[in-house]
Design a protein that fits this description.
Two copies of one chain form a homodimer. Chain A is of the alpha/beta class. Chain A has one domain (about 1-215): P-loop containing nucleotide triphosphate hydrolases (Rossmann fold, 3-Layer(aba) Sandwich), CATH 3.40.50.300. Chain A is built from eight helices and seven strands. Chain A has helices at about 1-25, 40-55, 70-75, 95-100, 145-150, 150-155, 175-185, 205-215; strands at about 30-35, 60-65, 80-85, 110-115, 135-140, 160-165, 190-195. Chain A has a seven-stranded parallel beta sheet, sandwiched between helices. In chain A, helix 1 packs parallel to helix 4. The longest helix of chain A has 25 residues, at about 1-25.
Chain lengths: ~220, ~220
């Protein structure tokens, strides 16, 4: 019974996710679903990224949190469209919540929409929001065993950003080994090493973003 | 419908949790439910703790992980009873899993049973396993905004161990502020500052353990 209900929920979610994606494609907006453990640096990455790109591309952010609007408040300084979703204890965002949130955005005016998921390395894996790419932040402070232990999240990611690399040595983390572990679990994932706080480490990430924004605007070259 | 099913699941879980606790009380074994984000240091804390106490008290560990038995393997050196639960993608341990696991343990020979929950700062909050105390590890690398954002987990904890305090300055964390935030969310929580890797920081934690083990063995003075 529980399993049947869960399957029904997933089928419904994924259908709405597909609808969302169609809409995003029509409006030529690149949509990214940012996932991670709590405190791995998603909001900090969005802050640093907006500093670097917000004068060139039009961005908006949907913030997912159990409680509080602290992350959205941190982004108010950029004067971009922001929508806060509070899940009230819920452990992930779902496609229906995104479907309602995007009614508050003028998608046709946007180049890129960041969706910051709830900090949780388990449950968001199963829920397609309609994004084009899933971006997983993996902080080195969490240890090197997370890809094998949180398999579904690492397998569901298109791009994995290894974050807080300035702490790798202190945390006894071998970045080469971490990258091998990620590719053992997900051979096609792209991987970049970053320190979200340090804009000098974000060059490849910004390049990745620009490439993917351009693919949305010329959909013939796009995968979706 | 979904909500009703969820409520049924919780009622059933909590009833089994109560049964587990009765059994633990009869056998005079202290049971701790260790929760945290992924990579906050639960297994490392158990390792350091066993080094300090395993010649004085009889301990066992139930390890909860989505996949792999890596955490249990790390503890094999201590030659204590170990049970691995793999949730196969499930986001928390539940009372029924614990009920089955403890059949593999001789509870009457134990002083203390550590249950290491799945690394997840959301879902384990709702599931009583039958423990006497809930111990939450909170790594300073996760930032200072987690108590307010992950309210249910912080409210459900009896003891909160602020971990990796040697990284606080590097992570720009004010420990006084963190403690105030925790007490704003959960005024009765006990708080200790530790570095799970450094046994010299664990004195108060070991004292807390000993006090609680003794309360189990002299149940007249116990709260449960």
């Amino acid at each position: 019974m529980e399993i049947k209900i869960f399957k029904d929920v997933m089928i419904k979610n994924n259908a709405i996710g597909e609808d969302n994606r169609k809409l995003f494609n029509e409006q030529k907006v690149l949509v990214l679903n940012l996932t991670s453990s709590p405190g791995a640096g998603k909001t900090t990455l969005i802050e640093s990224t907006l500093k670097l790109i917000s004068n060139k591309v039009k961005a908006a952010v949907i913030e997912g949190d159990l409680y509080t609007s602290r992350d959205a408040e941190r982004l108010e300084v950029f004067k971009i469209p922001l929508v806060q979703i509070n899940t009230e204890g819920g452990c992930h965002l779902d496609a229906r919540q995104i479907h309602h949130s995007i009614k508050e955005l003028s998608l046709n005016e946007l180049d890129i929409l960041f969706i910051e998921n709830v900090g949780n390395l388990v449950c968001p894996a199963e829920f397609d929001l309609g994004e084009h790419k899933r971006v997983l932040l993996y902080s080195v402070t969490e240890g090197d065993d997370k890809p094998a232990k949180y398999l579904n999240m690492f397998q569901a990611a298109d791009l994995i950003l290894i974050n807080k690399i300035e702490l790798a040595e202190l945390c006894r983390i071998d970045l080469e080994y971490v990258e091998k572990e990620i590719h053992r679990i997900n051979p096609t994932a792209e991987i970049l090493r970053i320190t979200a706080l340090d804009e000098r480490t974000l060059e490849d990430w910004i390049q990745w973003l620009n490439k993917n924004v351009q693919m949305r605007e010329r959909p013939d070259e796009s995968r979706n």
